[in-house]
Design goal:
heterodimer; A: 10 helices; B: alpha/beta; Rossmann fold; Alpha-Beta Plaits; translocase (chain B); cell membrane (chain B); ATP-binding (chain B)
């Protein structure tokens, strides 16, 4: 039998090593979770290929050019909002957040690790969606940096909303609500169905939804070649500030 | 010079209208095993979770290694085993321990620790598929993997089979040998007697007795024997030194308490002879912590 030396030798690992270890564990957990993978990868790809190839919607131009930015926005929402809300809600319920709180990994470190894991999964999603889009004849325009900035601010907004749910509701309620919100925003956020198809009176409301801002912003950059759409960026930033501010006040770790 | 591992003075914790901890005072020395013994609902977990920084005291003072419990610099120095859960259900056994080990500067080897606790066969098993005892052992491993100075173990052997229980006891002994301070809660008196240098018996949120297991149980001993039921004990009591007690419980089983020594033994056997009774299975026993608890609170420990 191996001899173990239990003589106390306490000490925290370097901050970056702790965050990296936690982020890696979270990415692995996401990729291993079948339901989450269906939501983050399979559904966006199905929507992209299905609606690109079949003339079910009239977008007044190339369908794949219209759809790819919307599906990228959907992918961001599925990971930063739905996936993160459900996973964190259950971590709270199973006492995982509590247990991690007893390790040297600080709460700030844990949140940083969660963010890094979300970004890593988004990169995988973007690579797959862009590849499928290109194969379907997508011709992106505009600035990569503008698109990336929209995605970063959008990620912050959706993470804030997801954590707001996860930190206050019961895990089961978070599961149900996060999926419901995902479906509603998928239908009403301009992902697949253009906002111009909705009644005139509803549009101002729909346009301030975070998903519409991200979809519209990405679309005006990648399809319209706009430099940096300031209105959608401001809408996303407002959601991010509001939701993350509420999270810092309401989040319950236990 | 060194502050104690844990120092608690007049601790109070309330949940709504219920007072879970009611003026509890306790000191756990460094390098020793301290057992907090009491029935369910006595306030053990509340006390430990305040020391771990999870809960905030309503009143009183708590110092862990001389510091306020919530301070971040305590996290690497203190190992924690929760009463249940704390691990993502889909996480594999070895993955969890390796993850936790990466938060520390000089951790123990995760695989060697799993082997030590008999979990080698289950390294790839998701947490939710482990048996209750295996889950407990994984939590115990995670509490010590960072080589802490002090560990809190909340009911470490609850739900363990006897073999796993002894493995856990051996580990606690080894920790103590290596100079680690251990604070554990339990409602098993044999666990407290066997492991602890210092036992605090708590009931209704207060310490009702404390000391070494021997000092709590050893001062008074019992003489027990079996004989035919219904013997008249008054005469025996008159012959025994003042302060002795004699009772029949259950029928046919006699317990004599007091200064149990050769003299008392002689008095009892002489009395038996005069009554024409043969005392069977006559023996002298120490009281157990269970007896102590029953005496102090009038209730059973479990």
């Amino acid at each position: 039998m191996t001899t173990l030396d239990f003589t106390p030798a306490p000490g925290a690992a370097p901050f970056t090593r702790m965050v990296f270890a936690q982020a890696r564990a979270e990415v692995r957990a996401t990729l291993r979770n079948g339901e989450q993978l269906a939501l983050t990868l399979v559904l966006p790809v199905l929507l992209l290929t299905g609606f690109s190839m079949m003339p079910l919607i009239d977008v007044g131009g190339s369908r794949v050019d219209f759809l790819t930015p919307g599906v990228l926005a959907l992918a961001v929402m599925s990971t930063a909002f739905t996936g993160q809300a459900i996973a964190t809600g259950f971590e709270r319920r199973y006492g995982v957040l509590k247990r991690l709180g007893a390790t040297p990994l600080s709460r700030a470190g844990l949140m940083l690790a969660k963010t890094a894991a979300v970004v890593a999964v988004e990169v995988i999603q973007a690579v797959v969606i862009v590849a499928v889009g290109l194969a379907l004849g997508w011709r992106p325009h505009g600035s990569f940096l503008s698109a990336a900035l929209l995605i970063v601010v959008g990620t912050a907004a959706f993470s804030g909303l997801g954590l707001l749910m996860a930190g206050t509701l019961r895990a089961e309620a978070t599961l149900a609500a996060a999926n419901l919100v995902y479906l509603v925003l998928l239908g009403a956020g301009g992902v697949v169905f253009p906002l111009s198809k909705f009644p005139e009176g509803m549009r101002p409301v729909l346009e301030i939804l975070p998903i519409s801002a991200l979809t519209g912003g990405l679309r005006s950059v990648l399809a319209g070649g706009a430099a940096l759409p300031l209105v959608p960026l401001a809408v996303l930033a407002a959601w991010a500030v509001l939701s993350l501010g509420l999270v810092s006040r309401t989040f319950r770790w236990e | 010079m060194d502050s104690p591992a844990v120092e608690i003075i007049d601790l109070v914790k309330r949940y709504g209208g219920t007072t879970a901890v009611d003026g509890l005072t306790l000191r756990a020395e460094r390098g020793a095993v301290t057992a907090v013994l009491g029935p369910n609902g006595a306030g053990k977990t509340s006390t430990v979770e305040i020391c771990e920084g999870f809960r905030v005291a309503d009143a009183g003072t708590v110092r862990v290694l001389g510091l306020a419990p919530a301070l971040p610099e305590l996290r690497p120095r203190v190992g924690v085993m929760l009463q249940a859960g704390g691990v993502p259900p889909a996480m594999r056994c070895a993955e969890w321990l390796r993850l936790v080990s990466r938060f520390y500067a000089r951790p123990l080897d995760a695989d060697a620790l799993l082997a030590r606790l008999g979990l080698t066969e289950h390294v790839r098993t998701p947490y939710r598929r482990l048996s209750g005892g295996q889950q407990q052992r994984l939590s115990l491993a995670a509490a010590v993997v960072g080589r802490p100075e002090l560990v809190f173990l909340d009911e470490p052997t609850a739900g363990l089979d006897p073999q796993a229980r002894h493995a856990c006891w051996d580990l606690v002994g080894e920790l103590r040998g290596a100079g680690v301070s251990v604070v554990l809660t339990t409602h098993h008196m044999d666990e407290a007697e066997r492991l602890a240098d210092h036992v605090a018996i708590i009931d209704r949120g207060r310490v009702v007795a404390e000391g070494s297991p021997a000092s709590l149980t050893g001062a008074e001993r019992q003489l027990r024997f079996r004989a035919r039921p219904g013997l008249a004990l008054e005469e025996l009591l008159n012959a025994l030194p003042a302060g002795s007690a004699a009772k029949e419980s259950p029928a046919g089983h006699y317990i004599i308490e007091g200064l149990v020594g050769p003299e008392l033994l002689g008095t009892v056997t002489a009395w038996c002879a005069s009554e024409g009774v043969t005392a069977d299975d006559l023996r002298i026993e120490r009281r157990t912590l269970e007896d102590v608890f029953l005496e102090l609170t009038g209730r059973e420990l479990r």
